Amino acid sequence: MNCRSEVLEVTVEARQVEEAMLALLHTILLHRSTGKFHYKKEGTYSIGTVGTQDIDCDFIDFTFVRVSSEELDRMIRKAVSEFKDALSNSGSDGMGQISLEFYQKKKSRWPFSDECIPWEVWSIKVNVVNLANEQERQICREKVGEKLGEKVINVVEVINRHEYLPKMPTQSEVDNVFDTSLKDVQPYLYKITYQITDSLGTSVSTTMRRLIKDTLAL
Amino acid sequence: MAHFDTEYQRLEASYSDSPPGEENLLMHVPEGVKSQWHHIENLDLFFQRISFLYNFDICLKNGFTCMLFGEIFELVQLLFVVGFTVFLANCVDYDVLFANKFVNHTDSSKVTLPDAFLPVDVCSARIRDNVFVIFVLIISGVFWLHRLVKFIYNVCCYWEIRSFYINALKMTMSELPYATWQEVQARIVEIQKEHQICIHKKELTELDIYHRILRFKNYMVAMVNKSLLPVRFRLPVLGEYVFYTRGLKYNFELIFFWGPGSLFENEWSLKPEYKRGGNRLELADRLASRILWIGIANLLLCPVILVWQILYAFFSYTEVIKREPGSLGARCWSLYGRCYLRHFNELDHELMSRLSKGYKAASKYMNCFLSPLLTVVAKNVAFFAGSLLAVLIALTIYDEDVLAVEHVLSSITLLGVCITICRSFIPDKHMVFCPEQLLRVILAHIHYMPDHWQGNAHRYETRDQFSQLFQYKAVFILEELLSPVVTPIILIFCLRRKSLEIIDFFRNFTVEVIGVGDTCSFAQMDIRQHGHPAWMSEGKTEASIYQQAEDGKTELSLMHFAITNPQWQPPQETTHFISQLKERVHREATGAPSDTHPMSLSESEPRSLIANLLTGPSTLASVHFGRDSSLTNHATAGISDGASALRSLSPISSSLHLRGSLSAAHRAAGYTGRAMAGSGTDARTVSSGSSAWEGQLTSLVLSEYASTEMSIHALYMHELHKQQSRGELSRHTWHRQESDESSDSIPDEVRSEPNHHSRNFPRSHTFPTTVPSPSAIPTSASANNPFGAGVKIVRSARVPMGGWAEDGQAAPRHHEPLPEESSEDEMPPHIHKVNLLSFCVCSCNINLPVFTAIKWIFFPSLSLTLGYIIKPCQ
């Protein structure tokens, strides 16, 4: 695929899943958001400001920084809690993966719908463990905090590299690059998906699509 | 939750006022961002389409419009053919037409055409009752709709690519047919710097683009090269037979690359579990069961596919057969041949042009083997049929009522067909029998052949094996028709057994390249990893027998890629290999005795390569044949063999169309001179920047020279390989095993290995057997070889072959687009036939309207027969 993919792996206790996911997703989004663009002319704009917020975790010894936007937080919380529920309902060994995908839209001509072209995918693999006693939980609490700290540094390192980012758009194209639906912050277009076990393989839909595409190719 | 607000609070949301110091904070969007060509999702597909459109443009000048109109007309034609066939079958009262039944008319005694038509209700009832017709109608309806949707989809896609060519690559469609692929590619590389269509890398290399376009094809080529695919069979009557059709190829690709549960996760990456060796047995089981299911699905769909194939063949080939009935007797490169002969990283158009250049020599070679007895019989049959035909036609010309006599027209047609068939068995009178030489010329174009062909060109075994690569068109069509029935059998009984080897192959030969994804490691053309010690990479290669590519594929592919893409910067060792080889070839080329001026265009012995190239067109190929065959005979021992190989190239140079002005030829010669010097290869790319017509012309000429240069290198490498294999015959004996007896036939040398790993594993000969070094094998190998030492190594009489299919339309086109295929007697055959016909019409002064009617109805057969009868008289 023509996109970067980064994989983060964490091992947490069941009750820590939500906070750990929020910490990582918010950290990534913090670096992938800008202030709102205010266009003066077609190609000239000024950037609004973005506030940040420190969040302390309840179940992990960890504090992270997020964009102080309630709306964004709500959306991410929703996705994460869905993931958490699915994970606890699955009843299996507690493996799951949540991915945050940044994409660009490409307007297509009439018969085709708009294409979403990902340019960066962050996959967070979660491994849920069950702990026997309180003492272990206490150790885990600290260890997960440390681990998350490492991951955050990892994320920042990746983001600091000079790599491909969509070019800044003109006013008419801003919707193709940024999510402009939020009123106080403007992240790059993103999509959060999750997957409980990683053995799904080629789904039927992709195969069908490929089959149709292949028969159509000259 | 503790909530700590920092001082970095957001300002209130409703800005109507600007932030402070706004004048300085204003950002500007740089110009030129509006192009839509940044960051393309599926680069594989994108590059494939670019290459496809390029191919199309090469074949048909101004390809896009032509494609559009051609497709539309074809759709209409299809509709017509189906409708008309059904009409003929169901709505015509043939008794009336054949005058078996009497029509009672009151006004006149003439039978009119509408009389023969059945009434509409009867007709539709007949159609409705006939299940088979309904079935055919439904299938062809689906077929037609599929074509229509495909057409619309393709137009949309290629319109986009076309605008990419125009807007991003800045090439107009009119100049595209004259641009070389290398120019297009250079522009893509430029575009990447600006727009970053691939986001992993700042710069794309040529190899990246090739890898993306040919990802799966490289796998197929490698699998054929390592004889992994079950395409060769030992049949009771036919002997060894290669069966590889488009249907089979489609199924292979479905299984390996994109079908449900295939080995590839998406177009660019192999599934991670296949990259790990741990559970290979389980994966092999899974693959085997998938193959079984797909085979069963094929079996169930067999009737539908069969009807589809018949319709397809009917619609695709009737037109061709009508236009040139001889084309069924003509040959074409088989699907297997195209896969076997393909280099790694060779695009379709490169392969096609190479094979098309070899076409003439190849068919000449095959014609050498016409049986003399058959020729005599054919001549006589043709004589009798011809005389009968002549009488009938003469009578017809005298009085057209002869045509009204029963069966006269049909016998004329049949006789014509008979003569056509006979003629294909009568060899050209001026044919010189020198298969060895012809095979060399073929080799110069096709670049690959099994070792045991050399020196055995005159033998029927060689011919039979060559015919696996170069089959009759008719056989090709027949195989395609049989394919729906045979494919499931092959899948279920042959491919399934190979599942473990396939799993091992994909695991061992897949590498991940940044910015490209998973590719076949053979396609990296790394001498060190996949070189074959018998092909000049002695000492440089660390490949085990399992890893080395057969037939010098790695080395030849590398040379081919380096020559066609002079700007490509290979890794250090590879560069060393290339420059070393080029230097050697150059030395051999110029080391040939030269006592006269090299540029002299006399008929004398060609002095140097350049002189050779220039004098080539003016001398007859046959002259060279005679001379060179004597040369090669005594030159086989010495090192001067390389030179003789080069000299024997002169027939090829005759195919170079240096028909331009003398000055152009001189300039081109200058370029070649530099190109030959090894350092000056970039001369070819000088023109890549300029878009002027002149620049394009030179670049075309230069790419032509690149192909000649490659021919020289291929010949040279084969020659060296021959010497080397004579010297130390045993180095490269990796006996290919019979593809159809996979696991049982562990060869003796492997079995006799004391500490053999396959003891622990289920037997699979493609599983790396960690043979310590190639030199460990010689003794056992030569023991295995009944001829023993001293005799040329016969690596099992099998030729490695495999599969790659392409659109059927391309197949008949083979030898057409080439400018150099234009000797006198190969003028388009109907040109003088039409003249003849009109001549007859004029001179005999017969009833013109009737004759024209006849001409239009029976034009093909009549014109042919006339042509054939009168031509010998001239």
UniProtKB/TrEMBL annotation, chain A:
This is Autophagy-related protein 101. The lineage of its organism: Eukaryota, Metazoa, Chordata, Craniata, Vertebrata. Pfam families: ATG101 (PF07855). InterPro entries: ATG101. Keywords: Autophagy. Belongs to the ATG101 family. The keyword Glycoprotein does not apply. It comes from the Eukaryota. One of its GO terms (molecular function) is protein kinase binding. GO terms for cellular component: Atg1/ULK1 kinase complex; phagophore assembly site. It is found in: Preautophagosomal structure. Its main location: other. Transmembrane segments: none annotated. Signal peptide: none annotated. It comes from Amphilophus citrinellus (Midas cichlid). One of its GO terms (biological process) is autophagosome assembly.
From TrEMBL, chain B:
One of its GO terms (cellular component) is autophagosome membrane. Residues 768-783 have a biased composition (Low complexity). The chain crosses the membrane at residues 68-89, 127-145, 291-315, 373-395, 407-426. One of its GO terms (biological process) is protein localization to phagophore assembly site. It catalyses: a 1,2-diacyl-sn-glycero-3-phospho-L-serine(in) = a 1,2-diacyl-sn-glycero-3-phospho-L-serine(out); a 1,2-diacyl-sn-glycero-3-phosphoethanolamine(in) = a 1,2-diacyl-sn-glycero-3-phosphoethanolamine(out); a 1,2-diacyl-sn-glycero-3-phosphocholine(in) = a 1,2-diacyl-sn-glycero-3-phosphocholine(out). Pfam families: ATG9. It comes from the Eukaryota. Phospholipid scramblase involved in autophagy. Cycles between the preautophagosomal structure/phagophore assembly site (PAS) and the cytoplasmic vesicle pool and supplies membrane for the growing autophagosome. Lipid scramblase activity plays a key role in preautophagosomal structure/phagophore assembly by distributing the phospholipids that arrive through ATG2 from the cytoplasmic to the luminal leaflet of the bilayer, thereby driving autophagosomal membrane expansion. PANTHER family: APG9 AUTOPHAGY 9, AUTOPHAGY-RELATED PROTEIN 9A. This is Autophagy-related protein 9.
